[in-house]
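Minutes, methods subgroup
Present: GH (chair), OT, SY

1. OT presented the first of two proteins processed in the latest run. Sequence and structure tokens recorded below as shown on screen.
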Amino acid sequence: MSDTPRTDAENTYVIHGITHVSVHFARQLERELNAACEERDRYKADSEALDHVSESVITGRYSIQLLYDSVEERDKTAAHLRKRLEKN
């Protein structure tokens, strides 16, 4: 895309009091608009992919925490049963 600032005077002309835009300028604007839309779509796709990864990480962390809690509960139960067995 062009980073060069434009002025209306450079790309327009008047015929019978009606302002017209040059075909070259209109085509250039259309190419730049298409490029900007493609770039926006790529960023949107990247953002959605990152959102999916983020959700997967959160789900993974939650699963790890559940597993940790289960192991901790198992260890507490095992310790409690050992104490009861030792008393008997």
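2. SY then presented the second protein from the same run.
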Amino acid sequence: MLAATVLATVLVSYLSGHAQMTHAAFQRVKLQMEERNLRAEQNALITRKNEQSGKNLVEQWAESHGFVKPATPPLVLQCISREGR
């Protein structure tokens, strides 16, 4: 009878500890996933901010140095080689 009580106590303690460890592991994985998602969102926001501010900085620099944005798009000339004929 005493051996059965000790065995039951050990079994319950083992199962309780295993359940706590499993719960902690699931919480860790959940936190890691949340952290990964937050980092991805932060990187996207930083990229978006850099894209928006980068254009404005370039335009501000160009205006401050006397450059003017052309009214018409630039003319691009292509060189056609005679070797391809």
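Chair's summary of item 2: The chain is about 75% helix and 0% strand.
Next meeting: continue with the remaining queue.
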